[in-house]
Design goal:
By secondary structure, the protein is mainly α. About 60% of the residues lie in helices and about 0% in strands. The protein has one domain. The chain contains 3 helices and no strands.
Length: about 60
């Protein structure tokens, strides 16, 4: 997003930013719903949940 502001300030998003946020939210909801409704072991599920919304740079650090 192009409009970075300090915390405590009013956020100002343009139309493109709002659309990206809505898509990000929708994908997050799909992922969470998928994790809730699938049968994977609890350790794998916990790992996915912990990494789910991290920036790519942080996720790369957790690859093994």
């Amino acid at each position: 997003m192009r409009n970075y502001l300090n915390l405590g300030h009013e956020w100002q998003f343009d139309t493109e930013d709002k659309e990206l946020l809505e898509k990000y939210y929708a994908v997050g909801q799909l992922l969470i719903n998928g994790l809730t409704n699938c049968s994977i072991n609890s350790q794998a599920k916990s790992r996915i949940e912990a990494l789910l919304f991290l920036p790519i740079v942080e996720i790369e650090k957790h690859k093994y």
